[in-house]
Amino acid sequence: MEEPEHLARYRAWREAGDELTGFVLDDVVPVVNRLRLFTAARLGLTVHELACLDLLRQRGPLTTETLADRTGLTRSGLSRMLRRLEREGHVARGPDDTHAQRIVVTLVPHQERDDAAAELRFVVRSAMAAAASEAGLHRRRELAGAAVIMRILSGCLFDAARQASDRLTGRRRYAQRMRGSPRVID
């Protein structure tokens, strides 16, 4: 008996999802982490600092609230990091014109950092071009489709990381409440 079409399609999606998950977690993430560690070490930065600077480069000036959300750092951790980055000449902090309580962080031009970032982007761009060529993706439309998939994947991974963080934070708060709650004695 032949498998119904909707079950075959579901099985194919599941197998493709399993293969993609393994590829991302086992192959891509470790290599990207290695590249980021190398670049950060070369600049005397931590990986979190480099990630913060990359966010500011990509998106422009951001509030400290947005940076904390995107980097996963606490407010105090982010504040310490930003003080160091400001002291080293990487960022500038200032008030938000639209909200008196907000602080906006802006990326400051920094020759050594900008050169290292350009070199990293060149290395990754070359690797991506080689991968696209090897996969037979030569047309602009094919490359655009691959880029869309990568952007969607990036968004899904960001959401998954946020949900995992929220669950962990929720468990910690629950455990703290349970430890702090008075015991009832009969």
Characterization of this structure:
The chain is mainly alpha-helical. The chain folds into two domains: 7-136, Winged helix-like DNA-binding domain superfamily/Winged helix DNA-binding domain (Arc Repressor Mutant, subunit A), CATH 1.10.10.10; 139-179. The chain contains six helices and three strands; from the N terminus they run H-H-E-H-H-E-E-H-H. It has helices at residues 5-43, 47-59, 64-71, 75-87, 111-134, 140-180; strands at residues 62-63, 91-95, 103-107. It has a three-stranded antiparallel beta sheet. Strand 2 (91-95) and strand 3 (103-107) form a beta hairpin. Helix 1 runs antiparallel to helix 5. The termini are far apart. The mean pLDDT is 83.
